[in-house]
TrEMBL record:
Residues 66-279 form the Alpha/beta-hydrolase N-terminal domain. The chain crosses the membrane at residues 47-67, 79-99, 119-141, 161-182, 203-220. The keyword Transmembrane applies. Keywords: Membrane, Transmembrane, Transmembrane helix. This is Alpha/beta-hydrolase catalytic domain-containing protein.
Length: 599
């Protein structure tokens, strides 16, 4: 019998005796023989052996993952995303294959086909999947270059991007093997339940699924997640005690952390020390604006400034009173993101616009970066933002109405969610403060979502118009802040959001529903070729979150000096001109690179 023939040969000559494969074709078709003769090798091979319907679906999902998303990504990052997506596709494919075989093919007399036909399929399906994936990778590299050009980022090469495939195969194989380990564990539990506890086989399998699922969930959430959260929190708490190179304790009494301050320099934390020590001083402001300027006020409380949140806010109010903040022309409350970071460009912009006649106040509520806080403890951000705004507003109301400063709110990213939490709605904002600038709001923001859902008919989701722009407006860039041309009442509320910012557009709804922003004409920096696919688009945009700030200013989650244009629209002093805006922008650009990007 030749190696290409399919058949078996008997051992020992007895009828019904155990047979061994007569060719490697049969080994592929029947791994049970291998498993019986070599249990461990058979089990390991079972982890690697693939379902060919699953391979076809994995290739399809992998190709979907290569279609353009919001931001460009390099081959390494795309390899991780492609592998995860391919593993999801493999799971879908195996489920579809099982159902079709069980309900249809299994009832046909000619199924399964001969071994040679099966072998042909097992060669054809992976080969075609590989060739199609390579072809899609070539197209994806071209998309990535177009997307990089739209976002002013560096493009990729086709040959370099082909490395994505190897990494994706490795990632998908690891995930599929992990799933099979869990599946085998379910079978093992069911076997012991049947053998030891005499649980019927029909009930042992479901019980095994429940037990393994419960143990896996407990392991991930109560052990791995909590351990990871504690480790990350510990790591960032250690960073919180460090100080960036070049940052020094302020001497001016108008700053928290100075020798005159109720909040010690050591207690402000990493981002708090950055905030109070940076920014222009009165002589620098005077040089830019051509007229004398007071020293701008910056008030901050870190997590270690006081033992609890209420005590920290007591320090904040005492600092505002000590520095004379309620006698300035504007008082800006800034609910922070994650670690207590305040956008240095936004802080400098409002101080330049008002020539130092300003007071900025912020408070830290966490050691963790914004994206971790968003995933793990977003309620904490909302509570902290509400408490800060409420306490400052309560004290501000005690000042005479004719002399107290304009009360402004600024928030970026998770800070917008913290800021929104202080208000019951748009009417409450107008009755409480004198202007709001919110930048890069997360899609889960309650007020933002309500306004966007009730946008004027015919306006796009990426740039909605609400009530003809009478009170609240949405803008993608400096040019669009003035749209529509209808009157804009004061106090003004402005959201600034990029079409390419995944923080704004990521939502669990992407799993099953195509959003309006993917049905409409794209924004200026989104590729028209981006399409919605179930599950896949959700993972793609979720992956973009990790790289949201990894693109140049003006794209993704980097808003650059657009915050200056926002401040001018919301809170410019009387007589402000376009030339004034460009003078301030030039001053901010000249200092670019001296401020850290941490969030």
């Amino acid at each position: 019998m030749t190696g290409g023939e399919v058949g078996t040969k008997q051992t020992g000559g007895a009828a019904g005796a155990k047979h061994e494969p007569s060719s490697w074709v049969e080994v592929l078709a029947s791994p049970e023989e291998l498993r019986e003769r070599h249990p461990f090798v058979g089990w390991a091979w079972g982890l690697l052996r693939l379902d060919y319907t699953g391979i076809a679906f994995a290739a399809l999902f992998f190709c979907w993952s290569l279609t353009p998303s919001l931001l460009p990504r390099d081959w390494l990052y795309q390899g991780l995303i492609g592998g995860i997506t391919a593993a999801i596709g493999y799971g879908v494919g195996t489920a579809v294959g099982w159902a079709v075989n069980r309900l249809l093919l299994g009832r046909l007399p000619w199924w399964p086909p001969p071994a040679k036909v099966q072998l042909a399929l097992k060669i054809t399906v992976p080969t075609l999947s590989l060739l199609v994936s390579i072809g899609m990778l070539i197209a994806a590299a071209a998309w990535q270059r177009e997307l990089a050009a739209l976002t002013d980022a560096e493009g990729t090469t086709t040959t370099g991007y082909l490395r994505t495939l190897a990494l994706s195969i490795l990632v998908a194989a690891l995930l599929i093997s992990l799933w099979r380990v869990l599946r085998d564990l379910v079978r093992l539990v069911a076997r012991y339940l049947n053998r030891w506890l005499k649980v019927p086989r029909s009930a042992a399998a479901p019980i095994g699924v429940v037990l393994v699922a419960f143990l896996s969930y407990t392991m991930v959430t109560d052990v791995l997640f909590d351990a990871a959260y504690a480790a990350i929190n510990s790591a960032f708490s250690l960073q919180n005690n460090t100080t960036r190179e070049g940052v020094e304790q302020p001497a001016a009494p108008e700053r928290s952390g100075s020798p005159d301050s109720y909040a010690s320099w050591e207690s402000l934390g990493f981002e708090g020390r950055n905030f109070v020590s940076r920014g222009m001083h009165s002589d620098e402001l005077a040089a830019v604006n051509g007229k004398p300027a007071p020293e701008p006020i910056r008030v901050y409380a870190g997590l270690e400034t006081a033992p609890d949140a209420d005590a920290r806010l007591d320090v904040v109010i005492a600092e505002l009173e000590r520095t004379g903040a309620f006698q300035r022309s504007v008082l800006v409350v800034i609910p922070t993101t994650g670690t207590g970071w305040v956008n240095p460009t936004a802080a400098e912009a409002i101080e330049l616009v008002h020539n130092g006649d300003s007071a900025l106040v912020a408070s830290q509520y966490s050691y963790l970066p914004s994206w971790i806080s968003f995933l793990a403890d977003r309620n904490k951000a909302a509570e902290a933002g509400r408490a800060l705004i409420d306490r400052v507003h309560e004290r501000w109301l005690r000042e005479p109405a004719e002399t107290r400063p304009k009360l402004l709110i600024y928030g970026e990213s998770l800070g917008t969610q913290a800021g929104e939490a202080a208000f019951d709605g748009l009417a409450d904002i107008r009755e409480t403060v004198d202007g709001v600038l919110w930048v890069g709001p997360p899609n889960s923001n309650t007020l933002w979502s309500q306004l966007e859902a009730r946008r004027d008919p015919g306006t796009r989701q990426v740039e909605p118009v609400y009530s003809d722009g009478l009170v609240v407006r949405f803008a993608n860039d400096a040019a669009s802040i003035g749209s529509p041309a209808s009157p804009w009442m004061k106090p003004r509320v402005l959201y600034v959001q990029h079409p390419s910012d995944p923080v704004v557009w990521w939502s669990p709804d992407l799993i099953f529903n195509r959003p309006d922003w993917l049905s409409e004409p794209p924004g200026d920096d989104r590729l028209p070729d981006m399409r919605w696919f179930p599950f896949v688009t959700f993972w793609q945009v979720a992956a973009d979150l990790a790289n949201a700030a990894g693109v140049p200013d003006g794209h993704g989650h980097n808003y650059g000096t657009t915050v200056l244009d926002g401040w001018v629209a919301v809170a410019a002093p009387d007589g402000w001109t376009v030339d004034d805006t460009e003078r301030v922008r030039a001053a901010i650009d000249a200092r670019a690179g001296t401020q850290g990007p941490e969030k």
